[in-house]
Amino acid sequence: MMAASPRSARVLALGGLLASVAGAPAIAGPTEDHRVRGWTIATQLCSQCHVIGRAAQPGEFVGPAFVRVAEMPSTTGPALAVFLQSHHEQMPSLRLDRDEMEAVIDYILSLKTERTAPAGANQED
């Protein structure tokens, strides 16, 4: 197994710090690591047009807040995967590899509240 470079270690540390400040899940294991990676990717690629975390952010955004997307009854892992792979006129085409896309999806689904998550549903789907 390769050792992490100093740069990637700094990025992970910064991501964990920012995630804790921005309301993303704390790093506690593989699932949380994946969600933090999703938050990091979303922050880098989506934050100019969308509010990414739960906290209010200053500015005007053309896309819906990720919390609003998560709260939609139609928001599921497969639905988000189809959406992210489709072209949308007002959204740039993203070239995410499978793991990046799954990390972003896991992060968005982690924003669902218990009142909007279907009973007994696994948000990892």
Automatic annotation (TrEMBL):
<protein>
    <recommendedName>
        <fullName>Cytochrome c domain-containing protein</fullName>
    </recommendedName>
</protein>
<feature type="signal peptide">
    <location>
        <begin position="1"/>
        <end position="28"/>
    </location>
</feature>
<keyword id="KW-0349">Heme</keyword>
<dbReference type="GO" id="GO:0009055">
    <property type="term" value="F:electron transfer activity"/>
</dbReference>
<keyword id="KW-0479">Metal-binding</keyword>
<dbReference type="InterPro" id="IPR009056">
    <property type="entry name" value="Cyt_c-like_dom"/>
</dbReference>
<dbReference type="InterPro" id="IPR036909">
    <property type="entry name" value="Cyt_c-like_dom_sf"/>
</dbReference>
<dbReference type="GO" id="GO:0046872">
    <property type="term" value="F:metal ion binding"/>
</dbReference>
<dbReference type="GO" id="GO:0020037">
    <property type="term" value="F:heme binding"/>
</dbReference>
<keyword id="KW-0408">Iron</keyword>
<keyword id="KW-0732">Signal</keyword>
<feature type="domain" description="Cytochrome c">
    <location>
        <begin position="33"/>
        <end position="112"/>
    </location>
</feature>
